[in-house]
Amino acid sequence: MIDLLEGRFFLAFIALLEEKSFSRAAVRLGYVQSTVTTHIQQLEKISGQKLFHRYPRGIELTEAGKVFSKYAYQYVHLSQSLKESMNELDQPCGTIRIRTQESFFLTRMLPFVQEYTRNYPNVNLRIEQGSYQDILNGVLDYELDFGIVPQDPNRQDILFYPIMEETIVFAASEDIARKVRNAGFQILNDQLFISNGTSCLYHTSAVGVLKNAGIMVKDALELPSLEMIKQYVSCGKGFALLPEIAINNELKTGTLKILPFNSKMSFSHGLIGHKNRELSFTAKSFQSELQRFLWV
Fold it and tell me: What pTM value is reported for the model?
């Protein structure tokens, strides 16, 4: 099979996988659409498997395509690493793919990204947002150079590099916080609990702490972004578990208050990478710079 495969076939496969459209994949690669179609047909002929389902609304990977995607990402990554090594780089360049939770990016990583892109203009940081499981899956499937997660997955195939501790707090409006002070935590039984959803580790931790305090979450709302959660809670529409740093401004202005639970919650955020993925020079440099910037 190896003597039939060409790098451009892999690039066409990844472009189609990520763009979900033959026309958009062609624009991304600078090809005409028929060229992308031909490359995918060649791959399917070589592999002996159908890799994509074609629908009027777009494309979707077949089971064979899902298997093939892991090797396609590894191929492109190794090609980039080889190019960097052969060029004997004295400055990082190329692309680094990272996935993290939105709250961590906005509160912790954004200042680093601003500094890093100024210092290393030849590096293309492709940063995506995802839940804990999305991040872990991306690393396991070789889609990403790194993920950033709030705890060590404790898997033999995953390397975990601690970067910082994060304190998490329950927050509510002044009105709800006053009711808690006057009547106790039991009033939260009748309040809406707001989070990023059950796939978020913060949500899981919150439910455990609330249960220990005798509070059962009867009504919950899942919102997709940190800012939406803060705004909703500020209006007096329930309470949420949030990174303390994310609400510093709201605490100063009094629009949000920390609910005084006895249990202190913290997470050890870290970079994760696949054990079998060879890090490029650029990826190693990025890892070192991020750990230096964030670790306290």
Answer: 0.65
